[in-house]
Amino acid sequence: MHEVSLCRALVELLRQQAEQDGFSRVHAVWLQVGPLAAVVPEAMALAFEACTPGTLAEGARLHLVEEEARARCRCCGGCWRISSRLEPCPDCGAYELDVLSGDALTISELEVE
Amino acid sequence: MCGICGCKQPKDEISGHRHLDVELDLFSLNDRHAQTNRERFARQSLLVLNLVSSPGAGKTLLLEQTLKAQLGRIAVGVIEGDQQTSHDADRIRATGAPAVQINTGAACHLDAHMVGHALEELDMLRNGILYIENVGNLVCPANFDLGEAAKVVILSVTEGDDKPLKYPDMFVAAQMMVINKLDLLPHVDFDLERCIDYARRVNPEIQVIQLSAQTGEGMQAWLDWLEESYQTLVAHRIDQLEQELAGLKALLERG
Fold first, then answer.
1. Which of A37, A51, A53, B78 has the highest CB neighbour count under 10 A?
2. Interface test with A, best of B26, B32, B108 (most A CBs within 10 A)
């Protein structure tokens, strides 16, 4: 539901980056999306289409790059790849996992002009 | 590369396009506004709580009862977030507490920038508690820091005890879970223990208070928690100010 707000933030970040790095058009954006970032990739793509016309990213391609989610078990200390916050530790079965990565939503690369 | 036809020249150079490696967090804009709010809350010695729940969990009634108990003893203020109408802010004002309504329109959550502007209308609020009642939604508000000290998630027994598993992000983000409408427990299929177990699966540290804002049962534990959280904040603020004062006195003596 909040993908539109996030895409507005994305366009604003591009505008700030354009000032800093001296570009005027964005042709492609690589966005790293973790499985715990609470966004739906299809909704993100749709919101991007809706938010970019009339901006420096009009017509740009959005590449969604899936990021791995990892967590550390508080009980046994093991680090595991997870796909949701609800998984128990595959080794000791405990539910007390601290998420290490996979909840971010980060632009990692831009193709600009 | 022959320089005439551009063969073997990197494609990007031909087109004038270039690639940039960046690291831009989409939440960073909101986080910057949240940090500004947080610094303001600290200066004004305000305990700020972000109340989140699904629609109809009883946030507004809980707030009304809380304000009635606290008014006259502690400075309080409320920011109300709803997509439309000022019904909730009107209800809060009727208790005598100052309230600012934010209508988010199409947006499904409050963000730190909206809260920053609402604060302009509550500029006189100092040394007390500011409640932010977020839009009724257990999904999106989890990701937007408003600068609050803690998120409080309110879950009513009419909703189902597996909400913490269905909406884990919110229960991870919250410091306190209030289970509301306890008076309706005999009439619904809601297992308190199972609900708390599910919440602690996703957030082992989450604190829990069970109450009924309607009958007042359990309200004292909630009011005590608020008071205690506020006292902790005041003690911390006094320490900070004393350190600042000592630093200034030392400067003066040296000069």
1. B78
2. B26
pLDDT band for B10, please (50, 70, 90 cuts): low
Closest CA to B53 of B166, B160, B147, B139: B139
Q: Which CATH architecture has domain B30-254?
A: 3-Layer(aba) Sandwich (3.40)
pLDDT reading at B14 higher than 60: no
- Average pLDDT of chain A, as a whole number: 92
Picking from A10, A44, A74, A85 by the largest number of B CB atoms within 10 A of its own CB, the best residue to mutate is: A85
Out of A5, A10, A84, the one facing B107 most closely (by C-beta) is A5
pTM here is 0.89
| 3-class state of residue B191 by DSSP | coil
Is A83 touching B (CB cutoff 8 A)?
no
Distance CA A61, CA A56 (A): 12
Backbone dihedral angles phi then psi of residue A96, each to the nearest 5 degrees: -85, 85
CA distance B166 to chain A (A): 9
- What's the gap between Cα A42 and its chain centre? 13
Q: Where are the beta strands (DSSP E) in B99-243?
A: 99-103, 128-133, 150-156, 176-180, 207-210
Rounded Cα distance, A100 and A97, in Å:
9
ipTM greater than cut 0.90? no
Q: Which residues of B touch A4 (CB under 8 A)?
A: 106-107
Structural domains present in chain A: 3-68+101-112 (3.30.2320.50)
B202 contacts A27? CB cut-off 8 A? no
Q: Is B172 on the interface with A (CB under 8 A)?
A: yes
At A65 the three-state DSSP class reads strand
CB A17 within 8 A of CB B22: yes
Average pLDDT over every residue of A67-87: 90
Of chain B, the percentage scoring pLDDT greater than 90 comes to: 88
User: If residue B81 lies in a helix (H) or strand (E), which one and from where to where?
Assistant: strand B75-82
